[in-house]
Amino acid sequence: MSRPAPTGLLITGTLALTLVLAGCGGSGDGTPELAVSASYMPQPITDEMAAGFFTVDNKGGGKDELTSVTSDAAADVTMHETVGQSMREVKALDVPAHGQLVFKSGGNHLMFEKLRRQLKQGATVTVELHFAKSGPIKVEMPVKSATYNPATGH
Ligand SMILES: [Cu+2]
């Protein structure tokens, strides 16, 4: 009797479970070390309002808080979180020690209102993130297509 050979790799979902907290010792009151990545703005559908997404990684042993956001592209930038089907404005969002704060479609997002110029795919928006402890971080946020999906890159 012959058995069929396996034809593909079995990919197991262990990655999400291997969150290692080693190196986390100490007072827990260290300094946050922040870095921002994966920022983008989907090309707005109206010329009144736009959304923005990014990730803040904290490699440090102290937590921080995103307290406000400003931009050259809009008079008004607010932070929103999504709860169920609706969203609400928040005044601050935690960046945990050795953790991250994620803004993504369907979750936390920036809301740009009173846009100062047309924001077309290919343009760049300058965004400044202000934190409770760390100094401000300037982000050059690219405007992507209206249906851009960071998971696929399209
Ligand atoms: Cu919103």
- Overall strand count: 10
Q: Can you tell me the CATH superfamily?
A: PCu(A)C copper chaperone
Number of helices: 0
The CATH topology is Immunoglobulin-like
Which ligands are bound?
copper (II) ion
**What oligomeric arrangement do these chains adopt?**
single chain
Helix content: under 10%
Give me some keywords for this one:
154 residues; mainly beta; Immunoglobulin-like; 10-stranded mixed β-sheet; 10 strands; globular
Give a verbal description of the structure:
With 154 residues, the protein is mainly beta. The chain has one domain: Immunoglobulin-like. Helix content is 0%, strand content 46%. The chain contains no helices and ten strands. The protein has strands at 34-42, 49-58, 64-71, 74-83, 86-90, 93-95, 100-102, 109-115, 124-131, 137-144. Strands 1, 2, 3, 4, 5, 6, 7, 8, 9 and 10 form a ten-stranded mixed sheet that branches. Mean pLDDT is 87; it is low at 11-27. Copper (II) ion binds at residues 80, 87, 109, 111.
